[in-house]
């Protein structure tokens, strides 16, 4: 089955099938809109075909259909953010058997189901930056809560676990009272924030390590009596958070550049398709404007450290 | 054109050679009637003669296929019942049509409630008016209660109240008295007469000749959808009307054959269901036809439904051929040899959207199956046997039963139950709405079956039918068994007395 | 004014009204328990505000749904209608900068009414079951929404601040949204109780065949009921955009079952002819307040849906038991009359 | 003491059918759905790249299997004029049960059977509320839809169970050797044949249609309407439970939100396949064709790069068109009949009344 794309640019792949499909957790998620735009930019640079498909709700079983379709279409590569580490595993492996290179980004699957994972930041790095931000904002003591995405999101759960360890080890006066799940749905996250503030009148801070969650929480706080009383930090995009940083609801939050993440994932996929790398530890490849990257243990490529946005620097970003 | 009709005032309502058919069934061939103001006009005819169809055309519920319809001399063509209402016609339909979830008052005034300038319904005024009407009718019904659960008689009274409240020029009443007691009928008549004296035109449909003669000024007879004759009440007699209605002598309608009476096949003892019937005990023997008479609403259908197991009962027992029958289990009842031809064939007797073949074999489907599987072949074969035996008129066995005429539908129901090879056959209104010829056939069939040793319990609201067919007559009134007469003693007077008199005496 | 009714029928009338009272008491009990556990549930500015605010959108949709159910129909497309109008609202502000919010309201409600009209026309004229039609339009409207929005979505920053103020602001401590919902509720309740066409809706649902016999305008009324349901979902869609600021193509998914649930809990019989919009409104408050109260009472988040399900079933079972008791009483009353 | 055998001298003879066999088979709703399915498949093979690959068949049937399975009892339920909206929640609940029990160390087969029994119990609850308590099934199953889903989500909370014995997951995914057809089609085919036989060729099947068309007449014919419906709801729960176990294995994933919203897909397919929501009408081959039609259309369009939203629009339009066209045809027919009636009436010059 021939793909509809195909790059004839330089590189040892020659007539490699550079049709690459991006499969985010769900459509209509600005974080993925940004990362996929980065991917598209990269693919245009190297002359492949970009496609973006995805379910409307973030569930693993609905991702499977799109993985299968991609395999049927015979695309060269598939870039996935997994809604579940295990559930889409078999589908991914079947796609690989059909000759599709599979790269995960943002949220990984089990290592044996994909060729590469593009890690936006190490889990430790993210967890530590979140805890550092919140402890600074609440004076290193009091109750905090976490507003996460879905209960099964691999990356979220890993971060939360590490955050708990970090709290136990270095911040004994901070109490994590509850983790709630907004399902990366704006309304749910909004309502969950409201519920959190009610349930814990002494709450000092909220961490929302998901872009949908932090925006919804910020919107709730900005019009509530808790504005300025309850600290909020997490992972967010500057465009969504600008208003709340400027009005004082939020002092600082973190994120990597999702566009770069998508860009890097696209280049990594290209390298796999063209046979430049196989995903072994120590392989290295060129990623356009980002420079050269090396594959680490378990086929993980690390983008870099998270970046902290605050009132001073937020004006410099537009994504 | 009726140039010879009184030139001064046109008749209040005039129908001439109106035709209405439903698919293949011609319900009305030439419906003709003329209502004059200040007069009560009776419309009589056998079941299925087309009376109700005529009423529904006047009401705007059906549109006529042909013929003329004039209201105070002007040709009209109603598309909806709202139009006929607006034209001053009030109709009491044969079946009460109330909204069960709404209050009595709301039912009376639905769609034309008194309102203030802003369109707001004036509840107080509405309620007061309802009470005034009830006072006039001399009944006490709580105007605020929901109509769900009201007795048929009360429902009928609300229908009458509804029609009166319309203050219409023309009032059509399709069997309004069927469910009423003597006192209630008298009150209704008083109201009807006062409306007549106010100059309104009334039409009254009833199967009871005494009522027709007591109330009406003129009578029109219909038969088989056709107009037969219009006569002033004073110039006719019951015998004459019956001759016009039936078109032949009544006697031959009931070909009673001699049968040998055997042992008790159906024994009912002390059957009771609170609020419905009480302490009902009787037996039916092999070869015997027992008639169960009474007014509509007396509870006869409920009793046989309980016997058959479709309805529950609280106490008492039923034995078929010596063996007790469990409560509420029609399947066992069928297996023991009980068959019930229900009163409402369209709702209870038939699956109208299914084929003739499926209907006839519905009750015997299990015995037609081979190794648990049922194929079309055996079904059609069994159906063909019973269709031809009863001479069902249908083009094919896969025709939808709903497309058959009423009489043929009734034959399908009879066939369905005879196919089960019963010992005891209960028939509830077996000839309701079927034509004269078929009626005689049904009677002949019942007689034959009795002769072959079946025990037959026959409910009928037509007294001549009961008296003509039954070896013994039971009478029910208001849920109680009030009389039992052997054939020789069963006179119309005795039966009617048992069906009505006691109540009037009590009041 | 003389009362001719006997005590039994009056008691029956009371149990009828007891339904709304019953769930109102349940709602009050829940609020009381949650407040005892955590006074902030009621006695804080945000707590009080959220108590009123959270169910307001559902209330609007549930009122429309109740009207449709009263006519013995059902509208499964309300969630999709809400989503589509919410997105439309955002697009209007983006594509026509400076458009006055009031015009957006008019367009949103009108558009919702139009979608409802499509449902109603198919149901009333083609005489096909509402369940099938609105299941179809549930898919269609949602599909159109997703196709239109694609990966885009409306962000809070796309909407003017004064418009968003409607979603979050308050008057004398009562949120605007709640005021709007209350006005709609009162108008709808008044209409259903006091106007002829309102009563006709009940009659149609109670017995469609009898309604036809009466010459009630069945087609027009059913059409109207769907139109109102669509318009209210449209209004809820505009307000959704105002309240949440962010509108993705999935907004309002699953709302249809919540709306039907609210109506059913509130005593609107799924078989038509019975119930009030008051009941549906209280049902909406009960459903969403339970959601917020459960964590406070110590029941985990995850069990909320189970509680909601049990609540719906409990409500209809209770209804049935009451109805059976009533009909038995009526039978006994007949017995006595004899 | 019985009626005599019917007299042999048959006065009338009856044709079994008004129309020849080909007309009865071809001029049906089911035939139209099947024809549409064939057209869609042919068009897709001709114009959608990669549609003709064996993978398409494998993926399509695998994904459709739960819907196909549940559509079987759903057809029977809708034919008796009821509805079961809780099926997808039962899938979720049994999926969670399978996961929890497997995780607790139960042998998989025992865990799976227990989970299926949980599905049966769920169906029992629906059946009890509908037939014994006497509630409308639409309201009941909206309630149990929330209840069963809520229990599923409540039981498993934040976690998803993803460890299942490879033997079983492979079994769920493997094709019938030498074909692109997934193995799940074997139990499906067995069930489909069993359901078809029961529905179309047994006394029980006849009683289902009778109940759907006129339950009062059915009760008067000795059919235990309540018990029949009770049984159907339990079968629906059981089959949904089986689908839940399969779903779990297919995605190696037990989660509370598995199969969310699938009830609408099932009902849409059943209605598209020609089953009347008012009961009493419909056939299983039409339903299976309906499921395949929606599935194939979706698969082809996805392959052609059409997004899932357009597929939803098409599903919805098909559904609406299917009911509206049926009622439009009926309206046309009734108009023709009444026009004939009116003509007849006019031409018959009845004699002037006396
Ligand atoms: N909607 C209908 N479809 C088909 N046939 C009908 C319909 N309504 C009436 N008929 C048939 O038309 C004929 C006349 O019925 P109609 O109800 O007018 O009789 P009726 O004189 O009122 O009888 P009864 O005294 O029993 O009330 C009957 O054969 C009946 O079966
Ligand atoms: N829908 C109803 N609601 C309440 N009571 C009813 C209802 N239908 C009938 N009844 C009551 O049940 C009793 C029996 O009614 P039914 O009409 O079946 O009697 P019947 O003797 O069989 O009359 P028919 O001559 O019509 O066969 C009456 O007391 C009647 O008032
Ligand atoms: Mg009549
Ligand atoms: Mg009767």
UniProtKB/TrEMBL annotation, chain B:
InterPro entries assigned: AAA+_ATPase, ABC_carbohydrate_import_ATPase, ABC_transporter-like_ATP-bd, ABC_transporter-like_CS, P-loop_NTPase
Domain annotation ABC transporter: ranges: 13-249, 261-503
Pfam families per record: ABC_tran (PF00005)
UniProt-listed PROSITE patterns: ABC_TRANSPORTER_1 (PS00211), ABC_TRANSPORTER_2 (PS50893)
Origin: domain of life: Bacteria
The protein, known as: Sugar ABC transporter ATP-binding protein
PANTHER family xref list: CARBOHYDRATE TRANSPORT ATP-BINDING PROTEIN MG119-RELATED, D-ALLOSE IMPORT ATP-BINDING PROTEIN ALSA-RELATED
GO cellular component: plasma membrane
GO MF term (any one): ATP binding
Membrane topology classification: Peripheral membrane protein
Compartment(s) where it occurs, according to its Swiss-Prot or TrEMBL record: Cell membrane
Main location: membrane
UniProt keyword annotations, A-Z: ATP-binding, Cell membrane, Membrane, Nucleotide-binding, Repeat, Sugar transport, Translocase, Transport
From TrEMBL, chain C:
Annotated membrane topology: Multi-pass membrane protein
Coiled coil regions, renumbered to chain: none
Pfam families linked to this entry: BPD_transp_2 (PF02653)
GO molecular function, a single term: transmembrane transporter activity
Subunit structure of this chain's protein: The complex is composed of two ATP-binding proteins (LsrA), two transmembrane proteins (LsrC and LsrD) and a solute-binding protein (LsrB).
Gene Ontology CC annotation, any one: plasma membrane
Cellular compartment(s): Cell membrane
Name used for this protein in its record: Autoinducer 2 import system permease protein LsrC
Organism: Agromyces albus
Transmembrane segments: 23-44, 51-70, 76-94, 101-125, 131-150, 171-192, 222-242, 263-290, 302-322
Superkingdom to which the source organism belongs: Bacteria
From TrEMBL, chain D:
Keyword DNA repair among UniProt keywords: no
Protein name in the entry: Autoinducer 2 import system permease protein LsrD
Keywords: Cell inner membrane, Cell membrane, Membrane, Transmembrane, Transmembrane helix, Transport
Gene Ontology MF terms in the entry: transmembrane transporter activity
Pfam families assigned to the protein according to its UniProt record, in alphabetical order: BPD_transp_2
UniProt subcellular location: Cell membrane
Transmembrane spans: 31-51, 57-78, 85-102, 108-131, 138-161, 181-201, 230-249, 261-279, 286-304, 310-332
């Amino acid at each position: 089955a021939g793909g509809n794309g195909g790059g004839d640019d330089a590189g040892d792949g020659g007539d490699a099938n550079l049709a690459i499909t991006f499969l985010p957790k769900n459509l209509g998620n600005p974080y993925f809109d940004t990362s996929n735009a980065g991917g598209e930019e990269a693919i245009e640079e190297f002359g492949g075909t970009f496609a973006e498909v995805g379910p409307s709700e973030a569930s693993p079983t609905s991702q499977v259909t799109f993985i299968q379709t991609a395999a049927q279409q015979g695309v060269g590569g598939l870039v996935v953010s997994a809604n579940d580490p295990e559930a889409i595993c078999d589908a991914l492996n079947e796609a690989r058997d059909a000759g599709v290179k599979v790269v995960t980004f943002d949220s990984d699957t089990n290592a044996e189901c994909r060729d590469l994972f593009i890690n936006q930041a190490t889990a430790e790095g993210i967890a530590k930056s979140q805890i550092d931000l919140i402890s600074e904002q609440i004076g290193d003591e009091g109750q905090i809560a976490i507003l996460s995405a879905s209960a099964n999101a691999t990356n979220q759960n890993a971060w939360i676990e590490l955050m708990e360890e970090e709290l136990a080890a270095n911040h004994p006066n901070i109490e994590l009272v509850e983790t709630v799940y907004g399902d990366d749905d704006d309304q749910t996250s909004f309502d969950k924030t409201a519920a959190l503030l009610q349930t814990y009148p002494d709450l000092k801070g909220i961490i929302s390590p998901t872009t949908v969650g932090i925006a919804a929480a910020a919107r709730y706080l900005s019009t509530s009596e808790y504005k300025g009383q309850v600290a909020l930090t997490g992972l967010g995009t500057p465009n969504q958070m600008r208003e709340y940083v400027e009005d004082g609801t939020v002092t600082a939050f973190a994120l990597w550049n999702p566009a770069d993440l998508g860009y890097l994932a696209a280049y990594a996929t290209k390298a796999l398709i063209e046979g430049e790398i196989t995903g072994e530890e120590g392989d290295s490849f060129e990623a356009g404007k980002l420079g050269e990257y090396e594959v680490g243990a378990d086929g993980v490529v690390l983008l870099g450290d998270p970046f902290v946005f605050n009132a001073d620097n937020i004006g410099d970003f537009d994504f | 054109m009726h140039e010879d009709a009184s030139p001064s005032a046109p008749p209040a309502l005039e129908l001439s050679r109106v035709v209405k058919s439903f698919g293949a069934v011609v319900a009305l061939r030439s419906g003709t009637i003329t209502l004059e103001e200040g007069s009560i006009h009776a419309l009589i005819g056998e079941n299925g003669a087309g009376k109700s169809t005529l009423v529904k055309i006047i009401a705007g519920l059906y549109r006529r296929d042909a013929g003329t319809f004039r209201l105070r001399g002007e040709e009209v063509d109603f598309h909806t019942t709202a139009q006929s209402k607006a034209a001053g016609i009030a109709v009491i339909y044969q079946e009460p049509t109330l909204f069960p979830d709404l209050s009595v008052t709301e039912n009376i005034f639905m769609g034309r409630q008194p309102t203030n300038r802003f369109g707001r319904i004036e509840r107080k005024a509405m309620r007061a008016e309802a009470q005034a009407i009830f006072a006039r009718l001399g009944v006490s019904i709580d105007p605020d209660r929901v109509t769900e659960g009201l007795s048929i008689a009360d429902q009928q009274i609300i229908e009458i109240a509804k029609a009166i409240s319309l203050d219409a020029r023309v009032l059509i009443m399709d069997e309004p008295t069927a469910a009423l007691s003597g006192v209630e009928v008298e009150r209704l008549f008083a109201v009807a007469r006062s409306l007549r004296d106010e100059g309104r035109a009334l039409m009254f449909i009833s199967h009871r000749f005494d009522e027709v003669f007591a109330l009406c000024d003129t009578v029109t007879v219909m038969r088989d959808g056709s107009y037969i004759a219009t006569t002033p009440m004073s110039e006719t007699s019951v015998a004459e009307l019956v001759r016009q209605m039936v078109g032949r002598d009544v006697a031959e309608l009931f070909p009673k054959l001699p049968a040998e009476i055997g042992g008790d096949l159906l024994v009912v003892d002390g059957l009771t269901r609170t609020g419905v019937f009480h302490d009902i005990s009787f037996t039916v023997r092999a070869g015997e036809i027992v008639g169960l008479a009474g007014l509509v609403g007396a509870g006869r259908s409920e009793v046989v439904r309980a016997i058959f197991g479709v309805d529950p009962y609280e106490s008492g027992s039923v034995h078929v051929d010596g063996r007790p029958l469990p409560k509420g289990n029609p399947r066992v009842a069928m297996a023991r040899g009980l068959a019930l031809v229900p009163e409402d064939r369209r709702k209870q007797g038939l699956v109208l959207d299914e084929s003739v073949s499926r209907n006839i074999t519905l009750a015997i489907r299990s015995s037609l199956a081979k190794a648990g599987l049922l194929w079309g072949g055996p079904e059609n074969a069994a159906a063909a046997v019973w269709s031809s035996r009863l001479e069902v008129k249908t083009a094919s066995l896969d025709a939808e039963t709903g497309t058959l005429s009423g009489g043929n539908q009734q034959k399908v129901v009879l066939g369905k139950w005879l196919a089960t090879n019963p010992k005891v056959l209960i028939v509830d209104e077996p000839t309701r709405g079927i034509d004269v010829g078929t009626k005689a056939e049904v009677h002949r069939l019942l007689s034959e079956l009795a002769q072959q040793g079946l025990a037959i319990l026959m409910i009928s609201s037509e007294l001549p039918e009961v008296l003509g067919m039954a070896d013994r007559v039971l009478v029910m009134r208001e849920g109680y068994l009030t009389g039992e007469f052997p054939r020789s003693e069963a006179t119309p007077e005795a039966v009617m007395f048992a069906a009505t008199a006691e109540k009037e005496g009590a009041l | 004014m003389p009362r001719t009714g006997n005590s039994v029928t009056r008691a029956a009338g009371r149990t009828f009204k007891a339904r709304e009272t019953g769930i109102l008491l349940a709602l009050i009990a829940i609020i009381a328990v949650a407040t005892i556990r955590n006074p902030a549930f009621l006695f804080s500015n945000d707590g009080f505000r959220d108590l009123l605010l959270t169910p307001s959108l559902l209330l609007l949709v549930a009122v429309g749904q109740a009207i449709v159910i009263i006519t013995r129909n059902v509208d499964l497309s309300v969630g999709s209608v809400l989503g589509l109008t919410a997105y439309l609202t955002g697009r209007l502000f983006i594509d026509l900068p400076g458009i006055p919010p009031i015009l957006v309201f008019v367009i949103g409600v009108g558009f919702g009414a139009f979608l409802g009209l499509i449902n109603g026309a198919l149901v009333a004229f083609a005489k096909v079951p509402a369940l099938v039609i609105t299941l179809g339009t549930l898919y269609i409207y949602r599909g159109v929404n997703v196709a239109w929005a694609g990966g885009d979505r409306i962000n809070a920053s796309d909407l003017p601040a004064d418009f968003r103020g409607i979603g979050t602001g308050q008057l004398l401590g009562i949120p605007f949204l709640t005021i709007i919902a209350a006005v709609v509720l009162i108008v709808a309740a008044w209409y259903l109780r006091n106007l002829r066409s309102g009563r006709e809706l009940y009659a149609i649902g109670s017995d469609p065949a009898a309604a036809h016999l009466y010459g009630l305008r069945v087609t027009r009324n059913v059409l109207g009921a769907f139109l109102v349901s669509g318009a209210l979902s449209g209004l809820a869609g505009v307000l959704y955009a105002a309240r949440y600021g962010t509108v993705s193509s999935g907004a309002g998914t699953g709302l249809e079952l919540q709306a039907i649930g609210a109506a059913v809990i509130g005593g609107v019989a799924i078989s038509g002819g019975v119930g009030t919009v008051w009941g549906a409104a209280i049902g909406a408050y009960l459903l969403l307040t339970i959601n917020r109260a459960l964590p406070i009472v110590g029941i985990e988040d995850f069990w909320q849906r189970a509680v909601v399900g049990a609540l719906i079933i409990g409500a209809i079972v209770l209804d049935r038991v009451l109805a059976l008791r009533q009909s038995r009483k009526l039978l006994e009353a007949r017995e006595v009359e004899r | 003491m019985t009626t005599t055998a019917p007299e042999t001298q048959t006065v009338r003879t009856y044709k079994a059918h008004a129309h020849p066999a080909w007309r009865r088979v071809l001029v049906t709703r089911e035939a139209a759905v099947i024809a549409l399915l064939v057209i869609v498949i042919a068009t897709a093979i001709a114009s959608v790249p990669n549609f003709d690959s064996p993978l398409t068949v494998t993926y399509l049937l695998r994904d459709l299997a739960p819907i196909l399975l549940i559509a079987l009892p759903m057809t029977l339920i809708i034919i008796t004029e009821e509805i079961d909206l809780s099926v997808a929640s039962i899938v979720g609940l049994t999926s969670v049960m399978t996961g929890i029990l497997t995780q607790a160390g139960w042998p998989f087969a025992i865990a799976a059977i227990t989970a299926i029994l949980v599905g049966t119990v769920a169906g029992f609850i629906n059946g009890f509320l509908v037939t014994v308590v006497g509630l409308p099934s639409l309201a009941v199953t909206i309630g149990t839809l929330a209840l069963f889903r809520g229990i599923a989500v409540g039981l498993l909370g934040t976690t998803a169970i993803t460890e299942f014995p490879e033997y079983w997951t492979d079994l769920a995914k493997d094709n019938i050797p030498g074909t692109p057809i997934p193995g799940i089609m074997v139990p499906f085919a067995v069930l489909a044949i069993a359901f078809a036989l029961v529905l179309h060729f047994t006394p029980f099947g006849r009683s289902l249609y009778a109940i759907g068309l006129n339950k009062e007449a059915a009760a008067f014919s000795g059919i235990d309407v309540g018990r029949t419906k009770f049984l159907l709801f339990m079968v629906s729960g059981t089959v949904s439970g089986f689908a839940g176990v399969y779903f779990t294995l297919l995605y190696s994933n037990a989660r509370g939100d598995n199969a969310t919203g699938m009830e609408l897909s099932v009902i849409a397919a059943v209605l598209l396949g020609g089953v009347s929501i008012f009961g009493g009408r419909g056939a299983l081959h039409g339903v299976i064709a309906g499921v395949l039609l929606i599935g194939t259309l979706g698969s082809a369009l996805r392959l052609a790069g059409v997004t899932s939203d357009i597929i939803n629009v098409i599903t919805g339009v098909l559904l609406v068109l299917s009911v509206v066209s049926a009622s439009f045809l009926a309206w046309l027919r009734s108009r023709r009949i009444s026009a004939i009636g009116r003509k007849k009436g006019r031409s018959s010059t009845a004699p002037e009344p006396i």
